[in-house]
């Protein structure tokens, strides 16, 4: 099968940082689906793994953790899907990724693709939807439709992939006042379009931005980027006994200042369930199916912002460069193989 991988850790601008390869067709295990990959999207995790994870000697490492495709075969113990089903999923970081014509994935972390979306539109959703949903409802423990509470959620980096879904989920499924941050006119417009009540500039001190907007304190924070830079401002802005959720990878965090306000800090990694084969791993299947239903009833929309053409090494290198520039909004998608 055709695939894209890398043999050494190189900058995205280097021609050998991602290369077109031919790999063996994968064989599904007992609970696996064999999926024909129709479309993919690219996430920051792809760039982090490409830069930091050394592949085996002489073996290309295949990236890609957002797939929309068609089930072609199933393992002997599969009960949730059948050949011909249209599916979408974010996969398992411990296994080869989906930047390939064929891919195997555990059925418990796969959802039925929204009926109303194309493969490219659907490919933009799984990883960010799982991350946003788990962060909002599992980690921060926001109550759905908590009527009359007038609580506030600050989403730092709301124009990115996760933020673009998180803003929509919070507006559609909760009564929170949603405050997004963005720093450029086009990203501010994007966050407003997604439904944020207020949009602040995270290139300025956030506590000051909140006060200027008449929002001196917030109950919840979803810190999606540059947490180490923003943390002192977030601690100032969060109410006593508030909650901060984090998804990025700061080198270090000084958490002692959280103690005075009894602020709790929560990490979200959407791969935890598949990494540890947790007993509730199937929750990601159910979660994706709920997202699919919300898309089909018009409550959520795909967050595709850039279509980079067919799935090949050159186009993926361009996608990695854009993500690493910090100027991307929404999701970058690619579709089909030459």
From TrEMBL:
Superkingdom in the source lineage: Bacteria
CDD domains documented for this protein: AL_MDR
Keyword field: Cytoplasm, Metal-binding, NADP, Oxidoreductase, RNA-binding, Zinc
Transmembrane segments: none
Any Gene Ontology CC annotation: cytoplasm
Any one Gene Ontology molecular-function term assigned to this protein's record: RNA binding
Protein's name in the database: Zinc-type alcohol dehydrogenase-like protein
């Amino acid at each position: 099968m055709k695939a894209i991988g890398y043999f050494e850790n190189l900058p995205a601008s280097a021609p050998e940082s991602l290369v077109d390869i031919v790999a063996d067709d994968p064989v599904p295990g007992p609970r696996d689906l064999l999926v024909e990959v129709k479309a993919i999207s690219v996430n920051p995790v792809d760039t982090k793994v490409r830069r930091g994870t050394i592949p085996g000697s002489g073996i290309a490492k295949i990236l890609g953790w957002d797939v929309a495709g068609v089930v072609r075969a199933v393992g002997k113990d599969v009960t949730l899907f059948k050949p011909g089903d249209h599916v979408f999923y974010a996969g398992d970081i411990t296994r080869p990724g989906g930047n390939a014509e064929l891919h195997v994935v555990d059925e418990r972390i796969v959802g039925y693709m929204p009926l109303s979306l194309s493969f490219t539109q659907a490919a933009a959703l799984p990883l960010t939807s799982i991350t946003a949903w788990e962060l909002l409802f599992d980690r921060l423990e926001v109550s759905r439709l908590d009527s009359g509470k007038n609580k506030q959620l600050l989403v730092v980096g709301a124009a990115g992939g996760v933020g673009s879904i998180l803003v929509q989920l919070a507006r559609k499924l909760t009564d929170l006042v949603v405050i997004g941050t963005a720093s450029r006119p086009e990203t501010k417009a994007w966050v407003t379009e997604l439904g944020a009540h207020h949009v602040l500039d995270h290139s300025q001190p956030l506590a000051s931005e909140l006060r200027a907007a008449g929002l001196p304190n917030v109950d919840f924070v979803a810190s999606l980027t540059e947490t180490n830079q923003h943390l002192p401002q977030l601690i100032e802005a969060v109410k006593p006994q508030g909650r901060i959720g984090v998804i990025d990878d700061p080198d270090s965090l000084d958490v002692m200042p959280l103690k005075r306000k009894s602020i709790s800090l929560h990490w979200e990694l959407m791969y935890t369930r598949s990494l540890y084969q947790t007993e509730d791993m199937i929750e990601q299947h159910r979660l994706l199916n709920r997202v699919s239903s919300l898309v089909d009833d018009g409550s959520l929309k795909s967050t595709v912002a850039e279509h980079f053409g067919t799935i090949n090494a050159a186009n993926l290198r361009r996608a990695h460069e854009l993500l690493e520039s910090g100027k991307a909004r929404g999701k970058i998608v690619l579709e089909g193989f030459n």
